[in-house]
From TrEMBL, chain A:
Its EC number is 1.1.5.3. Coiled coil: none annotated. It is an enzyme of class 1 (oxidoreductase). PANTHER family: ANAEROBIC GLYCEROL-3-PHOSPHATE DEHYDROGENASE SUBUNIT C, GLYCOLATE OXIDASE IRON-SULFUR SUBUNIT. Residues 6-36, 51-82 form the 4Fe-4S ferredoxin-type domain. Keywords: 4Fe-4S, Iron, Iron-sulfur, Metal-binding, Oxidoreductase, Repeat. One of its GO terms (molecular function) is glycerol-3-phosphate dehydrogenase (quinone) activity. It comes from the Bacteria. This is Anaerobic glycerol-3-phosphate dehydrogenase subunit C. The lineage of its organism: Bacteria, Bacillati, Chloroflexota, Chloroflexia, Chloroflexales. InterPro entries: 4Fe4S_Fe-S-bd, 4Fe4S_Fe_S_CS, Cys_rich_dom, G3P_DH_GlpC_su, Helical_ferredxn. NCBIfam families: glycerol3P_GlpC (TIGR03379), PRK11168.1 (NF008369).
TrEMBL record, chain B:
Keywords: Cell membrane, FAD, Flavoprotein, Membrane, Oxidoreductase. This is Glycerol-3-phosphate dehydrogenase. Residues 7-354 form the FAD dependent oxidoreductase domain. It comes from Candidatus Chloroploca mongolica. Pathway: Polyol metabolism; glycerol degradation via glycerol kinase pathway; glycerone phosphate from sn-glycerol 3-phosphate (anaerobic route): step 1/1.
């Protein structure tokens, strides 16, 4: 067994049962169905062994938000242990159709995106349809499903004419959400990068695999990650930064897929090291004095929620840091652990209410702000915030593009 | 002094004594068993938990190997809830004589120990942490055994058949009239009351203490207490018992049992079974030996160290204690020493305890004119109230030398075999995860209360029943909870707060003893947190003046104290 793998499997030994994770866990705080990270993580792990029947089921209520990892004083990789335990359950008991479906964001997106999208979106807004979807598939009737786009981001990019002035290159990882549901986020990112003198390359790519990991389908997640690594490694080797707007996709490429799926080849490591969240990248430009600061003032006071998956990058608050350069713009941080959606978690019939309760603190804060706009880096969190508060939400890159006065 | 009459007085509440009491009671003989501590307080509760296949003794002690192989099958049938079918490997590492493998297989065949060679690749598929430089692997029917639960279950059966089991009763003296032992005077350690027991025969099953008991009747029995030190690691990095394929030696076996992996053992002669210590070099040596089987073993978290004393019976000169046969011996003191009314059963292994009881009781029955046959090999043991009435049956082994036995045992449809996930599965089924008293070992409130109601005399008794305090935090979170439950439950029976305080201090001290030898890394960090909980928050260091033994508890008595020379 190699050392990276050992450091994960042995990490349960570092648990001193202090309960800090249990008291920080946003899920355990709102439901009795989840016994908490200490219990389902290092504690239950001592009762599990490969090749033995899976003894437990409550670990499935872990949302994968990684707050536990962040607060653990001794470095137990709780979220990873939980993800693997869930995969063991899936390997033994099979993947329910609902989870199979929600784990395949790319497939669902590809089928729903296109000229027929408005009709589909209309249909999915009808309550009888949602009732049927809940009964048949198990996706909660109120859960925030994104509206599909009439065109894909990649189709737009093919027609997009880049300025000829670029001096440097970046590779853009758009993820499923930007491609099928929110091409405008990708367009804003391209505009900002090009404004700063970059030529944006668009590598072949597929779903980062995070929804597959969260739903315990490690086989499909592994092939997704291996395909992405194959497509991205040449960029990483040439020193071309791989930049993404979806914080959970970039976290998956950097860390989650390699660690949880035990993929540690040199190519995997090269891609992990060469991947950046977009604001991490822009902040490093700013630190070197290479970020353009020709901002128009935006006299606004906006609530900002840093997603749990972004905090898991352990980078501080890059979006806050960069947006603070915009004159007049004041951001109010949510200080909320999690919005509750956790990717596909809050969509599920039995977990929807848990997700809503987890996010209550954030929703309160957004509503109290009185703002008609909230900022958040992660797509599913944005959908959840808008669903729960009625307040429009945007990716911070959209505000940055606006401050640059860029046409989208 | 109150005097009671019985047919047989059994001395010793370990596996052997309890097994004897059950067999006696099942054959209809009036039986009282006395034990100075809790059941399994001696060697039975301090071993690594191996259900022997017999493999360890095929060369040096063939009789013991054959006995183990037979009893291994019997025990699987009568106490499945106490046993886990882990299977076992004998592996040839680069440090072992490669020629011994063939000798081993030949001797397994001669002694009737089922064995099957498997490839190193197959071994690594099953246990990827094992040393890839291992050259040969032999699979045997090793398993792991919960000796606390097994003894508790055996005692329960004995009681159902009418035997009286008196724990915390210390033998003050044996009564000898002329050339005959006619009974004993025992002391109830809870209150100091002395009781006379008149009996037709005394059965000395005191294990490492058998010499001390025999001397009370003026008879010399030489039992060499051989101290064996063991270290429990925080989790099971493997699921199969692993032995070095060589003649038995120190640190050559790792047993996955319950949630831990135990490496054992050393073998050091000690003059007194009540006085011994754990030396740092013993721990270092065993962890280094562990590295040969599992590279990096010494870097895993060590949870605790403890030692037990083997009851090795010496009736001839042997140079090395390991060379003393592990088989047992029944001593008839009438024939041997001219003293009637007493038998001693000495030596042996946990795995052969039932056979030892059968032979002892056969001899006793003959003497007392009882002709009823032994049925302990057929009738399964009852489940104590601390056990879940589980219905889940783990998958039955279908390969390896244990496969046919596994099928045979399964066909009996007795209680399911124990498996690693059992307690977690039960807690999940009951949804009792918010009501765990010992979180590490998943002991729920109802099981802890069952242990208290079953008559626990201190927190250590509860530990033996439900593993409370045996996990990574070594009682950091469960000692004060259990103390509170003990007080709540027994308060009306005269247990005072001062008595509860004493129970808490007693158990803290007992846990500390086993922590001291492994205080580094994660466990040191754990001990620091535990110290903050008990000293920093709860002020346990200031409890002594308001702590007092009593209320039916036994926390401090020289008769049951095991003294560690070095702490």
């Amino acid at each position: 067994m190699d050392h990276i793998e050992l450091s994960l499997t042995q990490s349960l030994d570092h648990c001193i049962k202090c309960n800090i994770c249990t008291s920080a866990c946003p899920v355990a705080a709102v439901t009795d169905a989840f016994p908490g990270p200490k219990y389902v993580g290092p504690q239950a792990q001592r009762f599990r062994h490969e090749g033995q029947p899976v003894p437990d089921a409550s670990v499935d209520y872990c949302s994968g938000c990684r707050v536990c990892n962040q607060v653990c004083p001794t470095g137990v990789k709780i979220a990873e242990l939980n993800a693997r335990a869930r995969a063991q359950i899936v390997a033994e008991r099979g993947l329910p159709l609902r989870n199979w479906l929600v784990a395949r964001a790319g497939l669902v997106g590809r089928m729903s995106c296109g000229p027929h999208a408005p009709l589909l979106n209309f249909g999915l807004r009808l309550s009888p349809a949602r009732w049927a979807v809940e009964k048949v598939i198990g996706i909660h009737r109120k859960a925030p499903l994104p509206a599909s786009s009439t065109y894909t981001f990649r189709a737009w990019f093919r027609k997009h004419r880049a300025p000829a002035t670029a001096r440097r290159q970046v590779a853009f990882f758009h993820g499923c959400a930007t491609n099928f549901y929110e091409p405008h986020v990708g367009k804003a990112a391209i505009a900002v990068l090009e404004h700063n003198g970059f030529e944006v390359l668009l590598p072949k790519q597929q779903c980062c695999g995070l929804p597959l990991i969260s739903n315990g389908d490690f086989k499909a997640a592994t092939s997704a990650h291996e395909a992405n690594v194959q497509a991205l490694v040449s960029y990483a080797r040439q020193g071309i930064p791989i930049v993404g707007t979806s914080t959970s996709c970039t976290l998956t490429l950097k860390e989650e897929a390699p660690e949880i799926l035990a993929l540690h080849s040199e190519d995997v490591q090269a891609v992990a090291a060469g991947t950046y969240d977009i604001f991490e990248f822009l902040r490093s430009l700013a630190e070197r004095g290479e970020l353009k600061t020709d901002f128009r003032p935006i006299e606004r006071h906006l609530p900002y929620h840093q997603p749990c998956q972004y905090r898991a990058h352990r980078l501080g608050s890059p979006a806050m840091d960069v947006l603070s350069l915009i004159p007049g713009l004041v951001l109010e941080e949510s200080h909320a652990e999690c919005c509750g959606i956790a990717g596909t978690y809050g969509l599920k019939k039995e977990k929807y209410q848990i997700g809503m309760d987890v996010g209550a603190k954030l929703f309160d804060m957004v509503k109290r702000s009185g703002s008609d706009l909230a900022l958040c880096d992660s797509e599913t969190c944005r959908w959840q915030i808008t669903h729960a508060t009625g307040v429009t939400s945007k990716h911070p890159i959209e505000i940055l593009a606006e401050a640059y006065g860029l046409e989208l | 002094m109150r005097t009671i009459e019985t047919d047989v007085l059994v001395i010793g509440g370990g596996a052997t004594g309890t097994g004897c009491a059950r067999d006696l009671a099942m054959r209809g003989m009036r039986t009282i068993l006395v034990e100075k501590g809790d059941l399994t307080h001696g060697t039975t509760g301090r071993y690594h938990g191996l259900l022997h296949s017999g493999g360890r003794y095929v060369t040096k002690d063939p009789q013991s190997a054959t006995e183990c192989a037979r009893e291994n099958v019997v025990l699987r049938k009568i106490m499945p809830h106490c046993l886990e079918d882990t299977s076992g490997f004998f592996v040839t590492t680069p440090w072992d004589d490669p020629a011994y493998g063939d000798v081993f297989v030949k001797n397994c065949r001669l002694t009737g120990v089922p064995v099957q060679e498997i490839s190193v690749q197959a071994m690594l598929r099953r246990e990827p942490v094992l040393n890839p430089r291992i050259s040969r692997v032999f699979e045997v029917m090793d398993g792991s055994a919960d000796s606390f639960l097994a003894t508790r279950s055996t005692a329960l059966s004995a009681e159902e058949y009418g035997a009286q089991i008196w724990t915390y009763h210390h033998v003050v003296d044996l009564v000898r009239e002329g050339d005959r032992v006619t009974g004993a005077v025992v002391e109830d350690l809870r209150n100091g009351e002395r009781i006379g027991i008149l009996c037709a025969c005394v059965l000395n099953a005191a294990g490492a203490w058998a010499g001390k008991i025999a001397s009370m009747a003026g008879v010399t029995v030489t039992v060499l207490p051989g101290k064996g030190t063991m270290v429990a690691m925080n989790h099971r990095m493997l699921n199969t018992v692993v032995n070095r394929c060589k003649l038995p030696d120190d640190g050559d076996i790792i047993v996955p049992i319950h949630t831990v992996a135990v490496i054992g053992t050393t073998d050091v002669h000690v003059p007194d079974p009540d006085v011994y210590g754990i030396e740092p070099d013993e721990i270092q040596f065993m962890l280094a030996e562990g590295d040969k089987l599992i590279p990096g073993f010494s870097q895993y978290r060590a949870l605790r160290a403890w030692a037990g004393v083997r009851p090795l019976y010496k009736d001839r000169d042997v140079a090395n204690d390991r060379d003393i046969p592990r088989t047992f011996k029944l001593l008839d003191h009438a024939e041997r020493d001219g003293v009637e009314g007493m038998l001693s059963i000495v030596g042996g292994k946990w795995t052969t305890y039932r056979l030892m009881a059968e032979e002892s009781v056969d001899a006793l029955a003959k003497r007392l004119g009882n002709t009823r046959p032994c049925r302990t090999a057929e009738e399964p043991l009852p489940l104590p109230p601390t056990e879940h009435q589980t219905t889940f049956r783990p998958p039955v082994r279908t390969t390896g030398p244990g496969a046919s036995v596994a099928a045979e045992v399964e066909a009996l449809q007795h209680a399911p075999l124990y498996w690693l996930g059992k307690h977690l599965a039960e807690v999940e089924r009951e949804q009792s995860f918010a009501d765990l008293i010992c979180e590490c070992e998943m002991a729920s409130r109802s099981r802890v209360l069952a242990a208290i109601d079953a008559g626990a005399k201190n927190l250590d008794d509860i530990r033996r029943d439900v593993r409370m305090g045996m996990g990574p935090c070594q009682g950091g979170w469960c000692i004060y909870r259990t103390t509170a439950l003990l007080f709540e439950r027994r308060g009306q029976d005269g247990l005072s707060q001062a008595n509860s305080n004493d129970a808490l201090l007693h158990f803290l001290q007992a846990r500390w003893k086993g922590l001291v030898p492994v205080l580094w890394g994660d466990q040191l960090r754990q001990a620091r947190l535990d110290e903050l909980i008990y000293v920093g928050v709860l002020g346990a260091d200031r409890l002594r003046p308001i702590a007092e033994q009593g209320g039916g508890l036994v926390t401090d008595n020289p008769a049951v104290a095991t003294e560690y020379v070095k702490a």
